[in-house]
Amino acid sequence: MPKPEYSVKEIPSNLTGPLLQLLSHVHVNMPWKILPRHLLTVLTLKMNVEIGFDAVDLDSNPPRELASVAERLHSRGCRITLHGPFWGLEPAGMDPMIRQISRFRIQQFFDLITIFDPVQVVCHTGYDPRHYIEHEQSWVDQSASFWEPFVARAESLETPVLLENVWEAGPHFHRALFEQLKSPFFGFCLDVGHQNSFSSTPIKEWLEVLSDFLQELHLHDNDGSLDQHRPVGSGTVDFGTLFRFLHSTGKDPLMTLEPHREEDLAETLEGLIRVMKV
Questions:
Q1: Closest CA to 85 of 120, 48, 115, 59
Q2: Is residue 212 part of a domain?
Q3: Residue 118 domain-assigned?
């Protein structure tokens, strides 16, 4: 008799009942390059994943291979979101050749939507305050010009594209973009770890200014000094304010966990259970 494809042996021993139940309601970040190593566990657990692609991934994986993995995930009921490439990309860069390369990479990434049929996709704005602090309106205008055709493509594919905060000091750049390109398929992903380590603006203001556009959360923790990707509840991220806001407004954005070590997944789920009780 052939060996069953899925086995309880693939379930980590520290993932107990309540953690497994919560796991079915969230996504977990999974870089494409390490997904093969964990695919059997993902399928066994029916884990929802946010698959991250970098430039090398986009260049080196044939559509047939991508489609095979996508089919296996969907056949097990695993929901999929995608995270786009960001290293070296500047969608609103002052150098037109840099913008051209950035556009090419995001086009490659958008081609994956028809393969993976994701719930939504996440990208970075590429904003760097060291470069654009005296050119803020120019950055907004150039960024809107860059994203406009991708928002149109997101609409045609009925797949939202969300922009995540990284280096932005506050929420106003994102709001300016969303106001210029108003679309239900163009929204915001709040990364609470980035907000805590890179932004001087309280999380409450980020939520209030961008609540109309909020469609996803990236959840991890740090001590405020670096983007450490520690387990939820082990640092200084203001999860109390976050979940009080969500409860009071009835907002229910998709939640993606971003542990950067395999052994931190259970602790992240445990921490999330604690911080959600506000």
A1: 59
A2: yes
A3: yes
- Asked if residue 2 belongs to a domain, the reply is no
Identify which of 220, 223, 240, 226 has the alpha carbon closest to the alpha carbon of residue 27: 220
Q: For residue 1, tell me if it sits in a domain.
A: no
Cβ neighbors of 176 (< 8 A, separation 6 or more) are 140
- Helix or strand or coil: residue 229? coil
Tens digit of pLDDT at every position of the chain (278 positions): 445 566 666 777 778 889 999 999 999 999 999 999 999 999 999 999 999 999 999 999 999 999 999 999 999 999 999 999 999 999 998 899 999 999 999 999 999 999 999 999 999 999 988 877 777 888 899 999 999 999 999 999 999 999 999 999 999 999 999 999 999 999 999 999 999 999 999 999 999 999 999 999 999 999 999 999 999 999 999 999 999 999 999 999 999 999 988 889 999 999 999 999 86
Residues 61, 159, 231, 236, Cα dihedral to 10°:
130
Name the burial class of residue 244, with classes exposed (0-12), middle (13-18) and buried (19+) by CB atoms within 10 angstroms of its CB: middle
pTM of the model: 0.95
